[in-house]
Design goal:
Cytochrome Bc1 Complex, Chain D, domain 2; 13 helices; 249 residues; single chain; 0% strand; mainly alpha
């Protein structure tokens, strides 16, 4: 009888641990209501919210710059031109503890879903900016192939298949990466590699980041940084023309 009881208790503990480890990477569900919330958000409210600060929380512009276009390039991402649905998901993930950063969690913990959506709409309305990067940095042809062709031997899909031919982002949870500063891009990929960031659905970015070399990640960061401010054209041909300027000779 005692043995049977122990087995039941052990089985229960295993079930609890399994349920905990299998928790979703995000609590955001793209229901009809969530779509409507983000699509109908008031960007004007977002413009006001980005300047609001309190005694214990900085304003958005203090770290990300006005309209999200001039961030502190050592630590913070460019938000201008970001896909609204992606920004909303990230803000919710911070609020829910699915993505961890103390300052961001403090910044969003008092904001409603409507306010998070308004901020997302405001940043989405801004043009993807030009960003600074080392003009001596170049991109190898092999790395450029990762953007448009991928690498079947490592099961790496082309970056453009998800992020768009110009790095403009797509659909719901795929961010714009054009115009992103180099250091933030590299640090983000490192965080995926080291499981410091785990809010990517189906571990998609963690899998890709682990398959890439450090040099490839750095060159991809340079390539997409260089696409900032170049969103006037469109399509694969224009993207290839833009990319050719970075190829190592």
């Amino acid at each position: 009888m005692k043995t049977t009881t122990k087995l039941f208790i052990t089985a229960g503990l295993v079930s609890i641990c399994a349920a905990t480890s299998a928790s979703p990477s995000s609590n955001v569900a793209w229901t009809v209501e969530t779509h409507r919330l983000v699509k109908g958000a008031d960007a004007g409210i977002g413009a006001k919210l980005e300047t609001v600060e309190t005694e214990d929380v900085n304003a958005c512009i203090d770290c990300h710059g006005v309209a999200g276009a001039e961030p502190d390039r050592d630590k913070h991402p460019t938000l201008a031109g970001q896909v609204a649905a992606y920004t909303f998901k990230q803000l919710r993930d911070y609020k829910d503890g699915k993505r961890r950063n103390r300052r961001m969690q403090e910044a969003v913990e008092r904001l409603s879903n409507e306010q998070l959506a308004a901020l997302s709409a405001w940043y989405a309305e801004q043009p993807i900016p030009e960003v600074e990067f080392d003009p001596d940095d170049t991109v190898s042809e092999d790395t450029l192939k990762l953007v448009f062709v991928g690498d079947k031997t490592r099961m790496i899909q082309p970056c453009a298949s998800c992020h768009g031919s110009r790095g403009q982002g797509a659909i719901i949870d795929v961010p714009a990466i054009a115009g992103q500063n180099v250091k933030y891009f590299v640090n983000t990929m490192r965080d995926y590699t080291e499981d410091k960031r785990t809010n990517d659905v189906y571990s998609r970015m963690r899998i890709i980041a682990r398959a890439l070399t450090r040099d490839e990640i750095k060159e991809l960061a340079v390539y997409y940084a260089g696409l900032g401010g170049r969103q006037g054209g469109s399509g694969l041909i224009q993207a290839l023309i833009d990319g050719s300027a970075f190829i190592k000779k």
